Amino acid sequence: MDEDAILKYIPTIIKTFSTMCLNFNQRYYTDNSSDLNLKKTYVSQCEFDSEFNQTIVKYLNGISDFMLDSDELFAFQTVQYGKFRSRTKTLESVYAKIHHYAQREIFDGGAAINKCLNDLFGSRIILPSIREHLEQILNILYELRKDGCIWRYYVRDKGDGYFAIHCYFREDNFKFPWELQIWDCDDENSNMESHEAHEDQKRDTI
Predict the structure, then answer these.
(1) What is the pLDDT of residue 2?
(2) N or C: which end of the chain has fewer CB atoms below 10 A?
(3) CA angle 32, 37, 43 (to 5 degrees)
(4) The pLDDT of residue 125
(5) Whole-Å CA distances, 111 to 16, 41, 60, 62, 126
(6) Are strands 152-157 and 163-169 parallel, antiparallel or unpaired?
(7) CA of 177: how far to CAs of 85, 119, 136, in Å?
(8) Backbone dihedral region of 183: left (phi > 0), alpha (psi from -120 to 50 degrees) or beta?
(9) Residues 77, 20: contact at Cβ < 8 Å?
(10) 43 dihedral zone (left: phi>0; alpha: psi -120 to 50; beta)
(11) Would you call 136 helix, strand, or coil by DSSP?
(12) What residues contact 96, with CB distance under 8 A and at least 6 apart?
C-alpha cells in the first residue's frame, strides 16, 4: 500500500465508521431513548445501579444484533489491505472498567461515564507507515473533526510500548461513544503486549 493510498484511505475509514455509528444510533435509540446525560453522570453513581446495568446489557445485545447485517462492518472486514478487528465489550470487561474508574474517583475526582465507557463497541485497523505519515494523518483527522465526522482523537504514546491513534465517535451526550484505533503494522506486537498488561491491571482492582 503506497503513501498516497494510505492518506486517501484514512478519510474513508473515518467516514465509514461514523456512518456505522450513526446508523446504529438511529436504529437502537428509536426504541431505547434515554435521558441519562453520560457527560454529567459519574461512574461511581452507576457502579451498583441495577437499572444502569440493565441498560448496558440491552445496549451490548443491540450492538451484536446490529452488526449481523451492517454493510459498513462488512466493508471493513473484507478490506483488501491492512487488518481490521472489531469487538463488542464483554460484560466482565465492562464491570471491571467501571470498578477501576470508580476506584480512581476516590483519589482523582469524578470520572464521567462517557469517558469510561467510550468503547462498548471498539475496533482497530492496522496499516503500514502510520508513524511515518503521522503529521499528515492528524491534519486529516483535524479536518474531519471540524466536519463533524469524528468527536475527538488523540495519539497515545506514553513510552510503555504502546502507540496508536485513538478516535472516538459520539452523536450527543445521551448516546454511548464508539472507539476506533489506528495502529501501525510495526507496533502490532508491542501494542498487544501493552494492551494485555493494561487489562490485567484493571482486573486486579476487582
Answers:
(1) 64
(2) C
(3) 105
(4) 94
(5) 30, 8, 21, 25, 30
(6) antiparallel
(7) 18, 7, 25
(8) beta
(9) no
(10) alpha
(11) helix
(12) 202, 203, 205, 206
pTM: 0.90
Closest CA to 181 of 86, 68, 62, 60: 86
C-alpha span between 31 and 26 (Å, rounded): 9
Distance CA 78, CA 86 (A): 13
CA distances from 171 to 16, 20, 26, 61, 151 (A): 15, 12, 10, 20, 8
Task: Give pLDDT tens digits for 56-88.
Answer: 999 999 999 999 989 988 888 776 667 899 999
119 Cβ contact partners less than 8 Å away, ≥ 6 residues apart: 89, 177, 178, 179
Distance CA(17)–CA(96), nearest Å, equals 26
Q: Write the CB contacts of 51 (distance below 8 Å, at least 6 apart in sequence).
A: none
Helix, strand, coil percentages, rounded to 5, for the chain: 55, 15, 30
pLDDT class of 139 with cuts at 50, 70, 90: very high
Q: How far apart are CA 152 and CA 9, in angstroms?
A: 19
pLDDT score of 81: 64
Which grid cell is 44? 461511581
CA distance 21 to 39: 18
